[in-house]
Write a structure and sequence with these properties.
The chain has about 230 residues and is mostly helical. The chain has helices at about 15-40, 45-60, 70-80, 85-95, 145-165, 165-190, 195-205, 205-215, 220-225, and strands spanning about 115, 130, 135. A 3-stranded mixed β-sheet has the order 1-3-2. Bound molecules: zinc ion. Zinc ion binds next to helix 5 and helix 8.
C-alpha cells in the first residue's frame, strides 16, 4: 500500500465527497457560463449552458481536468466552447455507457478524458472517442490497448477540441465521399470485397484517422497491410 499522498494518481475513493462536490459545482458553473456565452451569437445560450454545465459537473466530480497544467485548463475551456458539439456527443455516450461501461478512473483522473473499458461504441473491437469520452478501451493492463487510448483516442479528443465543428463535418464528408469513391474503385478494379474498399476510403483515409493511426505508430494499420486477410 502506498503511503497517503504518495502520488496524484491515487485519487479514487480517498478524495472526500465534499472536495469532489466542490469541484463539480465550480467546474459546472464556470463551464455553463462559458457554454452560454459561446452559443449566444446563435441564440442557443440555454443549450450551451446545459451541455457545458453538465460536462463540467461530471468532469469536476470525477476530477478529470488537471488544473496544474495549461492543457488541463485549455481542455476544460474548449470542451465548453469551440468543442461543444463533441461534448454534447460525449454526454450521450456517457448516458449510454453509465450502467455497463466499466469506468476506468486510473486512465481518466487529471488526464482530461473519461475512459470506459466497454461502453457504447459504433464498431465492435474498435475503441471510440466522442468529445472527451473514450469507450471500448478494453483491458488497460494490455500495453497495446493502453497505447491505443493514450495516443490514438486521446488525439481524437484533442482533434475535436481544436477543430470543433470541422471535425464532425469532415467525418460525414469522408463517410459519404468514401462510400462513393470506394464503390467506384470496386467496380472499376473488380476488387473482391466492397466493404473493405469502402472502409479504406471512408474510414482509414479520413485525415483525422490517418493522423491518429500514425501518432500511435500504426500506419498503415493491419487492415491496409493485408488486402485479403483470411480472418
Ligand atoms: Zn480513430
Amino acid at each position: 500500500m502506498p503511503p497517503a499522498g504518495a502520488g496524484a494518481s491515487g485519487r479514487g475513493a480517498a478524495v472526500p465527497v465534499g472536495t469532489r462536490l466542490l469541484e463539480a459545482v465550480a467546474v459546472g458553473a464556470a463551464s455553463g457560463a462559458l457554454g452560454a456565452a459561446a452559443l449566444a451569437p446563435l441564440r442557443w445560450s440555454g443549450a450551451g449552458a446545459l451541455v457545458a454545465g453538465a460536462n463540467g459537473v461530471i468532469s469536476g466530480w470525477r476530477g478529470v481536468y488537471d488544473w496544474r497544467r495549461a492543457t488541463g485548463w485549455a481542455g476544460a475551456a474548449l470542451d465548453a466552447t469551440w468543442g461543444i458539439l463533441g461534448t454534447a456527443a460525449g454526454l450521450a455516450v456517457h448516458a449510454a455507457s453509465a450502467r455497463s461501461g466499466g469506468y476506468l478512473p486510473e486512465l481518466s483522473e487529471r488526464r482530461g478524458r473519461h475512459v470506459y473499458r466497454r461502453g457504447w461504441a459504433p464498431r465492435r473491437g474498435f475503441a471510440f472517442a466522442a468529445g472527451n469520452v473514450i469507450t471500448n478501451a478494453g483491458d488497460p493492463a494490455r500495453p497495446r490497448r493502453r497505447a491505443l487510448v493514450e495516443r490514438h483516442e486521446t488525439l481524437h479528443v484533442w482533434q475535436q477540441r481544436l477543430f470543433g465543428p470541422v471535425f464532425p463535418a469532415v467525418y460525414v464528408l469522408w463517410a459519404v465521399g468514401g462510400a462513393l469513391t470506394g464503390t467506384a474503385v470496386w467496380l472499376v478494379r473488380r476488387e473482391p470485397d466492397l466493404y473493405r474498399v469502402v472502409e479504406r476510403h471512408a474510414y482509414y483515409h479520413n485525415p483525422f484517422e490517418r493522423w491518429a493511426y500514425a501518432a500511435d505508430g500504426n500506419w498503415p494499420p493491419p487492415a491496409l497491410r493485408r488486402p485479403t486477410p483470411s480472418g
